[in-house]
Amino acid sequence: MVIDANSEDALNGHTAGIHHRNTGKQEHELPSRFVCQMCGICIATSEGLVEARDDVVVFNQLYPADLAKAQANKTVQCPGCGQALGTRADSVSMLRKDRVLTRLERLEILVCSLKQQEISDMVPVLQGAFPHSNVSTRVLQKAELRGFQLSAAKPCPDFVVVVHRNEGRALLTDRNGFYHDVLGSAWQQTRGNVLVVLTRTEPKADAELFDSQLLRSLSTQGDQPTIGAMSSLGRVLTWEFSPSKPQLKQLQVLTAKAYFREPPPVVQGIPGQWSKHPPKAVPSAWCSLL
Ligand SMILES: [Zn+2]
Q1: pTM for the full model?
Q2: Fewer CB within 10 Å: C terminus or N terminus of the chain?
Q3: Ordered structural domains, the chain, with CATH
Q4: Ligand 1: distance of its center to the CA of 85 in Å?
């Protein structure tokens, strides 16, 4: 969306807080996001907003809060793409309005599966985990999976969920996996805000997020190391028909991460290609990339 750091909504938003997320009143209480115009990573929220001046927006804290500590110099750099966003002085940061966009929109979630039923089951689960969201869906065709690009997906997703009904051999990632290119493209566009859900697969222990035995064997004997790496990031969940309490909690964690577009951690085992930055965005239209 277009820069509008002066908007009433953005300024009023700073009384809001994410702390109430679990009270059921989340809908109107999420702080709005200020994102890097180049890469879309969240730099600050309305909670830290002090005021908007002519060409800068002033914050008394950035997001995440330790960003300030990590960068001791006077220039505020985007942790995602490295571009200079503004300057620091005393206890405030002044970010340039032409480099930081306000996003007041909901979280955009895209759910994909080969099966419509899995999509229909997943949508209400995601809406429950993160009510401040729009969920789009897409039934995948096997024939389109090789070389799949998440192009023309509008609105562009912040979070992509791939649901697979586990019937027999689970071919998910790498050379023979159905979803390798889907996940790669989604990983690139959302900077790692991706989740794989296997249904008809109960975790072996109550507190487990996924069937660790299955994931271990897929990753070490099934020639699918990438799904193993994703599971170590907490980005694989397995359940029979519906998520357990710990899994719901994990969904809330992952959707919140996606909402704020945290820079992804560097992880062993995630293909290098996936972590490459998508082509440079045109200012004010970084969404149109997708
Ligand atoms: Zn950036």
Answers
A1: 0.76
A2: N
A3: 8-103 (2.170.150.20), 107-283 (3.40.50)
A4: 8
